[in-house]
Amino acid sequence: RPSKMAAMFIVAVVVAFIHIVIADNPIVPNVGMADPHIHVYNDKVYLYAGRDKNATVSFFNMPDWNVWTSPDLINWKHETTIFPNMTYIGNKPTPECWAVDVAWLGGNGPFAFFFSNQGTNFGVMHASNPLLSDAVDILKRPLVSSFNDHSGVTVTNITSGSYDPSLLIDVDPKTGSQTVYISFGVNIGKSHYAIAKMKNSLDALAEEPRQVVILPNPKDGSVMAGDDKSTLHRRGDIYYLSAGSHYATASDPYGPYTFQGDTNPHAPVSKDRSFGLTHQAHGRFWTWREQWFHVWCEFVQENNTGHAPPGKYSKWRDSWMTYTHYRANGEIVDDWNYLNISGSMGVGQYDATWERIEAEWYMAGTNINKLQIDIPENNISFAVEFLGINSTLTFPNVKNLPTTSTAKLHLYSTLGASGTMVVKLADGNVVAKCDTGSTEASCSFTNTMFSGSLVFAYQPSTDMTDTFLLDAWRITT
Q: Which residues contact 24 (CB under 8 A, 6 or more apart)?
């Protein structure tokens, strides 16, 4: 029988799950959101995660998996809970519903939900929708396992400790054909990860798993540690295998990969500020509306220091998010600058009183290109290149907008462009028009709303192919 305090905690969690949550950073606080993976379906964000049961235990007690949705990364709604007894795992005294991921090849195909049973095996459920509201365990056994205790399960000499599956749908840019790869942690030798091609039915491997070779960092010889929380993504011709803030790159999904280090190597790291963004931060890199993001979970007790407290500490996590950028050579840069200045507000929200709003903090873009603008040794500054007449940047949910003021644009380079930056509200009303012929542009800002979305649209004066780089903007009183 639960204590009164435990009962209150259970009620709090249930209430939180029933209601829509308006969140900042952490995304949805105080629900134990762990190991988040995000996918976008029909322009709606779906977050799939495990759950830490309470904030007092010093071991992983994860009773279920959950699906959350959001139209804007601010308002989050809990949709579905999947319990282990809905799978071959059954009822366990202390279930450990570890990391999950989802894959969908489009059309009438299934939404495949891959789930980890602690650090021993993982299985797959199929559903007809991304909410997983009708998910069923189609195999009724593990897909890959450490032990040959189920008929038909994949067990090889490298599948010991199989867990934390991650899916990559690799689309051929020329033919549009899709190939599905699954990576997962293993516990064998010096190789901590395995990868295999999936059948398009998303219920079986198309080949035996292969060990993933990760070469040391060529700059300092450091190696990529760990055997869990691997995620795969592709940008351009580069494949990324990441674990928290550590990542490796390759030109082929099978590798070999080369360890590149940390996603924030030049951030002003101090012992009292980490945002939990370390190699322990299980999460995923993902893209939406021409912007890249990183979502991850952090141990709450470690958040202010980046180090586990001495002795046993609470296995209780929250999930965070920030903008992510890519240098010209493909290296990943998590936006520590944003976290440091305004990270607690959360992505997709802005305050007109800020001294500077970076252009790369946009939430939607069309016909634009995000570029690094500073020297490689100090890689935390980026700008957005407007590529022509159809280029726009959208900054939703800007609060404290003044009625009459001045809009100031910092242009890193005009690149020979001469035109006008038109700033509109979401309803199309123009609130500012700034000439882009100089690197510091100012113009009057007239507005009738206290808060709203600002859309920056570029209008070249003569040459419709003119481009320029917007570094930052602000509204002054």
A: 74, 344, 345, 346, 349
pTM of the model: 0.92
How far is residue 52 CA from its own chain's centroid?
19
For the segment 182-241, what is each residue's pLDDT rounded down to a tens digit? 999 998 766 689 999 999 999 999 999 999 999 999 999 999 987 678 899 999 999 999
Q: Tell me: cis bond preceding 26? Omega within 30 of 0 counts.
A: yes
**Chain CA centroid to CA 238, Å:** 17
Residue among 332, 396, 323, 389 nearest 361 (CA) = 323
**Which residues lie below 8 Å from residue 36, measured CB to CB, with a gap of 6+?**
27, 47, 48, 49, 282, 283, 284, 295, 296, 297, 319
Closest CA to 406 of 432, 454, 444: 444
